[in-house]
Amino acid sequence: MGDLGGGVAIREKAIALVKDAVDKDKAADYPAAFKLYMSALDHFTIYLKYEKNPMMHATIKGKFTEYLERAEELKKLIDSDNATSKANSALSPDSALRAKPKGANGAGSGNKENDEEKGTCCVPDYG
Predict the structure, then answer these.
(1) How many domains does the chain have?
(2) pLDDT 10s per residue in the chain (127 long)?
(3) Is residue 123 part of a domain?
(4) What stretches of the chain show up as alpha helix (H) in DSSP?
(5) Does residue 40 belong to any structural domain of this protein?
(6) Structure pTM?
């Protein structure tokens, strides 16, 4: 595939995507870096299907594995950041402002006895 124009173009596009991914990774823009790594991996996958040179195939496959491992690390990092952000926003004092109201007045179902049993009556205790 090394001498086919389309294969070289796919490989060069994958390399360009990896360079962009590394730049985003260094800048701590992990979601963008993750997307770029995944796009590069897609391009490398196509390239590897048609590469006939065993040395080039082995080299690209080794790099593919490196980029895949980094993408997996970024995915875990992004997921943990998202979980932390959600947990922090749920614990913040203004989270009640973002919460959906449970009843017509926003403080419960409107039935005081039912709300007292469920603990949804009155003002929430933040302290």
Answers:
(1) 1
(2) 444 467 889 999 999 999 999 999 999 999 999 999 999 999 999 999 999 999 999 999 999 999 999 999 999 999 998 888 777 766 555 544 444 444 444 444 455 555 545 444 444 444 4
(3) no
(4) 5-26, 30-50, 54-91, 95-98, 112-118
(5) yes
(6) 0.64
